[in-house]
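Our preliminary data section would be incomplete without showing what the modeling component actually yields. Below, a chain of 254 amino acids is followed by its predicted structure, encoded as tokens that our downstream tools consume directly.
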Amino acid sequence: MQPVTGERDLRNLLLTISYDGRQFHGWQIQQNAFTVQEAFQTALSKIIGSDFDLKGCSRTDTGVHANMYCISLKTAHPIPPERLKAALNRWLPLSVAVNACTEVPPDFHARYSCKSKEYIYKIWNSEVRSPFLEGYALHYRYPLDEKLLHHAAQAYVGTHDFTSFCTLDSREKGDLTRTVMAFSVTREGDMVTMRVEADGFLYNMVRIMVGTLLRVAQGKIPPEALPDIIEQRNRACAGPTAQACGLYLNKVRY
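Predicted structure:
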């Protein structure tokens, strides 16, 4: 969508949505691929026309879900926030829901105003797969020691160059340093959840972190090797990229 232009007073709205990522190729508009942004802009244009500019808080990969995803929307349209929320929920696909819509200051930006994001990764750790979790959690049939993995994952916490945990492409340029505030691995029954909060994430960073911890679980990478893998700044030193199905953008903090 083209940026809103002109001398009119523009409103800035913050919309919080959630979505099931199975049918989408991530958030950002792409040629020949259906994305959350395309679905959202299509619904929005039915309500307020084409005179708007929106920014998403993050890129997400194909098949990744969001419990909380934030969008900043600039428009001169006078529709009240609650009416816009209701109208969007009428026109959006059932796999996307608008949970809140509020007015925010003119300089608010869904991406650049963000202080941290939290992702979770769900692993169904059972010999038998769950038919209800297909596409929503990674099925991992072998034993997982969540306490061992939690201890190993503390190597991720802190400010590091995460080149070893990034799929390098044209979108990742410049400084690859990020600050991870927390990383936990917990279990509830057969569900193991990995939770990570950081000031920003590189392309595939969480999925590579998870894949590396699974290599630790398999005995292929010693737990004490993680600090050295970070220091190597070499993608080949880390584990594989875990599947997208278990990953959720869980919280965005401003």
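Helices lie at 36-48, 81-91, 146-153, 205-217, 226-232. The CA atoms of residues 18 and 97 lie 5 Å apart. Preliminary results of this kind motivate Aim 1 of the renewal.
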